[in-house]
Amino acid sequence: MKISIHDGVITGYTVNFLEHELRINIETVTGDIDTVTFDSYLAHYFDHVMAGSILLDIEEADLKTFFPENREEFESHKLYAWPIWYDDVNELEQYLQVNNYKCYIIFASLGLSGYVFAKTFKIKKK
């Protein structure tokens, strides 16, 4: 049975830098608590973080499309070595591809949205 996180309310998230893991807890429309886990986590960028955030979906982005659309953002991030040290945005994109990182886009109906760089993600019932 497929687990649906659509229209679920985000109840919180945690990052474990030592375990390279980001978890998002979601209360689904059926009242279950599910956990989305991003393994081999590298970094995340969230906007509109607030209580009551309603999740629309999580989709994997094509890095070849994602980087050209967000080039200016990553040009400004490189001054802060985020998410890694890089001199050129192409260098960052290549690092992610060579090391098998993916970009997961978090879409919201309300509140928290953004993206996560990680190698995999899974959804489990708590």
Task: Describe the secondary-structure layout.
Elements: E1 9-16, E2 21-27, E3 33-39, E4 43-47, E5 54-61, H1 63-69, H2 71-77, H3 89-98, E6 102-110, E7 113-118, E8 120-125
Antiparallel strand pairs: 1-2, 2-3, 3-8, 4-7, 5-6, 6-7
| Tally of DSSP β-strands | 8
Q: Based on CA inertia axes, which overall geometry fits?
A: elongated
The proportion of residues forming helix, as a percent range, comes to: 10-25%
How would a textbook summarize the main sheet? 4 strands, antiparallel
Please state the average pLDDT score.
Answer: 95
Order of helical and strand elements: EEEEEHHHEEE
Lateral arrangement of strands in the main beta sheet: 1-2-3-8
Low-confidence regions:
none
Strand content: 35-45%
| Radius of gyration of CA atoms, rounded to a whole number | 15 Å
